[in-house]
Fold this protein.
Amino acid sequence: DAGVIQSPRHEVTEMGQEVTLRCKPISGHNSLFWYRQTMMRGLELLIYFNNNVPIDDSGMPEDRFSAKMPNASFSTLKIQPSEPRDSAVYFCASSLQPREQYFGPGTRLTVT
Amino acid sequence: SQQGEEDPQALSIQEGENATMNCSYKTSINNLQWYRQNSGRGLVHLILIRSNEREEHSGRLRVTLDTSKKSSSLLITASRAADTASYFCATDSSSGSRLTFGEGTQLTVNP
């Protein structure tokens, strides 16, 4: 298995632009998680899905953030409009609950 | 605040020495997991210990759990330069799905 796949690996955009991050979980996993990691705040859970259904989005910072999982093999995290404080590394992880999580390589987002 | 808090924040040792990292948490858990993160990479699962277990081993890793003290420790024996990374503990609560990660311990193993 290729593991969790995220794209793009790096994204540089200007404030106000829309950003879409993509994730392909490991085949057969039934849970998908989006995290954000910064030096100041550490690793934060933004949202997670079970069987493609959003279960807990309490970590989503504000309405500018939205996430979808249209099928078991694909999820997106969208930021619109983006702001400089959104700069971080965004990780997607998947698991076969209730087991360990497998993380993707992350997307490093820079908003200027 | 973070459910898990690692101690120390940073640890520097020589190759061959043992490294011990500690984690404390606040609420009841189903299990506790340890992850490693190399610089610029995603987290990698190392080991899981269930709340009814006291000790788990995996290769050079040994994890202990003391639920009465709400604490866990990760021991890496005979460390190698390749063990240099950040180590995080993560706990799950009653729902079993959501993990809460600590702030991590940065381990540096000098060759």
Remarks:
- Chain A has a mean pLDDT of 94.
- The longest strand of chain A covers residues 42-50.
- DSSP finds no helices and eleven strands in chain A.
- Chain A touches chain B at residues 4, 31, 33, 42-43, 45, 48, 50, 55-56, 91, 93, 97-106 (CB under 8 Å).
